[in-house]
Amino acid sequence: MRLDQPRIAPLRDEEWSAEVRELLAPFVRQGRVFNIFRTMAQHPDLMRRWLVFGNHILGKSTLAPRERELVILRIGYLCKAGYEWGQHVLIARQVGMTDAEIRSAKTGADTPGLSELDRLLLKATDELHADAHISDATWKGLAALLEPQQMMDLVFTVGQYNLVSMALNSFGVQPDAGLPGWDI
Fold first, then answer.
1. Which CATH superfamily is domain 1-184 in?
2. Cβ atoms within 10 A of the Cβ of 94, count?
3. DSSP H stretches of helix in 79-174
4. What tens digit of pLDDT does each residue of 66-83 get?
């Protein structure tokens, strides 16, 4: 974590307005309201609109869950977003990724033994992070393996989680209990 205290405090249950209770109700029903959502609840209008896009990326993307998590882990790692890394290590495990596959998000496209798709996904994430552009060679390689909608979802997934990483890092969102660290 870049900060050891929040700059924007997560709302405690007793601070929730009716609007915030409505926004957070789906998370309450799931049994846990993570610090990211408690923090975003400080700006309900922004949170409401952000959740629509975030829900597409996380739940309705044309990328397979494993590929989605690989690029989310990579961009979280590149942005040094410990909160993002930890949350998505848990999700990556839920979608069947091994710890070795998760670690490849740290070591990147040159990791020995990667499939061609994983190598290209990691390379594309690096290129988007460094230059806001996927090179022609990487694009061509991915286009041979993915459909156009998947290519679009790839770019928007990296962009969404780059944005989320910036917010988490800048707001100082602290880890939830049980969140894995960088040492995976």
1. AhpD-like (1.20.1290.10)
2. 10
3. 82-94, 99-107, 116-131, 136-143, 148-171
4. 999 999 999 999 999 999
